[in-house]
Amino acid sequence: MSSALMSSKQARWRSWLAPALAAALLCAAMWVLHEQLQAVRYRDLQAALARLGADHLLLALLFCAANYLILSCYDQLAFLYIGKRIARTRIALTAFIAYAISNSVGFALLSGTAVRHRFYEPIPVGEGKFMAMHGQREQGARRPHG
Fold first, then answer.
1. Burial state string for 106-139 with b = 16 or more CB within 10 A and e = fewer than 16
2. What is the pLDDT of residue 101?
3. Using CA atoms, how far apart are residues 129 and 144, in angstroms rounded to an integer?
4. Which helix (H) or strand (E) element contains residue 15?
5. Distance CA 102, CA 45 (A)
6. Disulfide check for 95: which of 72, 79, 86, 125 has CB 3.0–4.6 Å away?
7. pLDDT tens-place string over residues 111-121
8. How far is CA 9 from CA 17, 18, 22, 47, 94, in A?
9. What gap in Å lies between CA 80 and CA 74, rounded to an integer?
10. How distant is the alpha carbon of residue 132 from its chain centre?
11. What does the alpha-carbon distance between residue 84 and residue 111 come to, in Å, rounded to a whole number?
12. Tell me, what's the pLDDT at 60?
């Protein structure tokens, strides 16, 4: 079999494999969510929220917003690290979406990186710098100071 034919077949596989995998994962996630929500009753949820009180719900929302704001600082610092200037609002929005998805779906390294790659793709960051930026952000969260 010639290498050109082999490359053509590989290209066809790759062109539909990622969307098919994404669709399968979405279906699996929807099924799991459906199964988990079978045990939740709307009236029970409503009663539990009423018992919490408005002040506790407001505090929870405030701390959640503060958390995402602080998490977006990792991405802001990563762009400083690679020396790229991008609008802070764009970085903050991308970071918010990436963290929201990775915290909800799991597989943070895979899901969060994919979201960031998609949003930063139009910006000429470069693959090497993108990976250095992402690696720096991940290491910065774990690296001991001193």
1. eeeeebbbebbeebbeeeebeeebbeebbebbbe
2. 84
3. 23
4. helix 3-37
5. 25
6. 72
7. 777 777 777 77
8. 12, 15, 20, 57, 35
9. 10
10. 17
11. 23
12. 92
Tokens at 68, concatenated: 């995402």
**What is the secondary structure of 33-50 as a DSSP string?**
HHHHHTT--HHHHHHHHH
**b/e for 24-49, b at 16 or more Cβ within 10 A?**
eeeeeeeeeeeeeeeeeeeeeeeeee
Burial of 142 (0-12, 13-18, 19+ CB in 10 A): exposed
pLDDT for res 3: 62
Task: Scan for tokens 């969060």, then name that residue.
Answer: 112
The pTM of the full predicted model, rounded to 2 decimals, is: 0.57
Ramachandran assignment for 106, one of left (phi > 0), alpha (psi -120 to 50 degrees), beta (any other): left
Nearest Cα residue to 96 out of 73, 127, 79, 63: 73
- How much is the average pLDDT of 20-30? 86
What are the pLDDT digits (tens) for 97-108?
A: 888 888 887 776
